[in-house]
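Subject: complex prediction, re-run

Hi both,

The earlier run crashed halfway through, so I resubmitted it with identical inputs.
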Amino acid sequence: MIWFILKKLTHGLGSIILIILVLSFILFYAPIDPVRMSFGQRSDEETINLFKQKYYLDKSLGIQIFHFFEDLSPLQWVKNNDLRLEDYKKQFIFKGEFSSLIIKKPYFRKSFANGRPAWDLLIEAFPSTLVLAISSILIAIILGLCLGFIASIHVNSIWDRLILAFCSISYSIPSYVSSLLVVVFFAYWLGDYTGLPIQGSLYEFNDEGDLRLELKNLILPVVALGIRPVSMIAQMTRVSCLDVLSSDFIRTARSKGITNIRLVQKHLIPNCINPILTTISSWFASLLAGSFFVEFVFNYKGLGLLTITSLNQFDIPLIMACCVMIVILFVIVNLITDFLYSFFDPRIKFYD
Amino acid sequence: MKILSIENLSISFGQNDKLVEAVKCLNLDLNQGEILGIVGESGSGKSVTAMSITRLLSSSAQYVSGRIQYFNEDKTIELLSIKENELQGIRGRAISIIFQEPMSSLNPLLTCGDQVAEGLLAHKLLPRNEVKDKVLFWFSKVGIQEPNRVYQSFPHQLSGGQLQRVLIALALCCKPKIVIADEPTTALDVGIQKKILDLLLELKKEFNLSIIFISHDLGVIQYLCDRVVVMRHGSKVEESETSEVFINPKQNYTKGLIYSRPSIKYKLRRLPTVTDFEKNPDYKNWKDDINLINSTEQDRKNIELCQAKILIDVNNLKIEFIQSRNWFGKITKKIVAIQQASFKIHEGEVLGLVGESGSGKSSLGKGILGLTQISSGSVIYKGIELTKLSNKEWRPLRKELQIVFQDPYSSLNPRKNIYSAITEPMIVHQIYSNEKERKEKAVDLLETVGLKSEHLQRYPHQFSGGQRQRICIARALALNPRFIVCDESVSALDVSVQAQVLNLLVELKSKFGLSLLFITHDLSVVNFIADRIIVLQNGTIKEEGYPYQIINNPKSEYTKSLINSLI
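This time it finished cleanly. Structure:
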């Protein structure tokens, strides 16, 4: 089992390295001047040179990438006069005359746009996205399972048709359209009755300047985000329920004379859970990684909005940090899903 | 004393405008303590009848009429009209079912023990803490060696034979009055089949069960049942005592069914078929001297074949399958499918290859044709070493070496009509110069295999299994091959169709001078068709010889057990 986790983590690490390589390549050749991005037009030669020297911006692509990885590595052999040294959260293991060995927190550099460490910005934005993703996936799971289950039990009836129609319509609406529709309906036309705001984040400053939790800002984004997973999960549930219902062992179970409740509980649900789990986990991972359009439309300050902003401002450290974060989230969700698979199905041995 | 009675039962499936009648006006009685056999070919409605007794038919648009009565001491219960929750008390408790496919009939996510215990718990027959002991008792009763291990095992961890025993325990644990056994041994190897049947007989005596036994296999029915009902197209053809049916069948269809089964006791030139009996009800001479091949003729033929040229020479053939590779693609685990197999096939000879499932017989057939990777050894065809050929070098040889697969349902492309299925290999190998000649040849072939020229434009789904297998044979013959591998080509077919296809193969063999490698698990089939037999077990050749030699005095223990388990 430990090998399985290590294997998965190695795969994840590989993806992170690959992402960084590809991104560095793109950003290096993109027509952006990081110096101009961070200092604007007014800046003296000396500061610029210091900045370039600090981040090796005057060196070739290979060296830049090497130094970026150096920043990320927890162990580093560093020269004592290195300019980056002051930014690291570090502990000296060995201190030499010219250079020393340090152990440190992976360092994602400072945002070019506002000078704060990129990782800190990410960590600040992440809880909002986490809350948004968890609440939309929870609602999607509950609704989707119910709808799919009802459809599969009353297959080919009017209910089945209605649910299928709802699913195909809602699935074909992209999230930026659905979020706009939701805003127009509930926050604009019905705004007087619902009292819901058009835009807003999970944490907002109130008039006194304190950061306050605004749960009602969550409602509309959750609706807009959840609608596609609902239809996906409902369809998946319906299909796999129908599949299991037609299998031989359901007939065997019925021939034993057990009650319908037990049939559903012990034989139907456990057997149709795995394909549904796949759908849920892939949706959850992409919700976590940032629901870009929805966060943008609602001006909801989360990971998605942060990524979009950083891209807009060519904030290279922040772009890098966001992408690495997204990969990490995917790896974690996949790992958990693999564990759940083998938890539900004794035939799957994940540590093989 | 009657315990179950079926009156005027009719069952149809489908939508209003497209109703298919599966069972038509069926009347049946089951007496206390008797084994009633229902025999019929696929689509005869035998399983549908059995499932309708406790209303277990799939819910897709079905229409059931008639009445099914269960006589429980002094009460009479109308099974088709009682409420679902009352029926739940009868299912498993009074009437239980042993299902066909042991592999798929158990819930893969629950342990076998829990699944059996579930039935006991549902009927509240005994306190919860005694259930496990009861299940273990039944496990040992049905001959499971390690009841405790099986109790905790999931279905995928057990073999087919063990699972079938679990299913029997599951059906019997609540001591039902009636047991419906729906082809309980069809999916199992012959060796296990007999053990399971003996077990059923034993249990029936011990618990005074009444059994409805459904099978397509007349041998099994004869071995087990007191009374037989023969069904065809949803209606009853014949009903009588077992001995009566087998000694003196009245209906032509029954005669055809009984006599079209090849036997290991004698060797015929041609198997009688259902059509023979239907055309000529007094068709009696199927077993006369002209049709029977006697031993002197057999010996003469064997000597002739020995002197014939060697067509295929297999030497020390070894086939391995890769089970797992490490990260660098290096092989870490291999399974040996065939070990050091050596044999020869003469021109015009039929070599039978017999073995149980997993013995490697299909791999051997495919290995000879280069359809599976060969690890070592050689296959020489007309002086050409086949194992070292590249795909390009193989191509001209493909037309001389052909294969007919097991499953006629999946070996024809459903989107191509029969004409293109048969002519495609001709086009690939450029055998005939133009469309007209190809079409003539295709018509010719179809007529050879007993189909008509108007069938050319039809698609595979419009044919029955037997017809499809003939089409596959026609396709294999399209290239005028010298050698055909028949990989369980008749196993999926009904008895009557099987006889037709076997007759066809024998005819074609003498007409075109073909050599066949006939792969099968059925010794009686191989006795009919093969000139020589190879017995395969776990990838090694156990025995080789003429059919009568092998059947009358088998040398290896394995062959002996195979023959003893025949019914």
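DSSP finds 14 helices and five strands in chain A.

- K.
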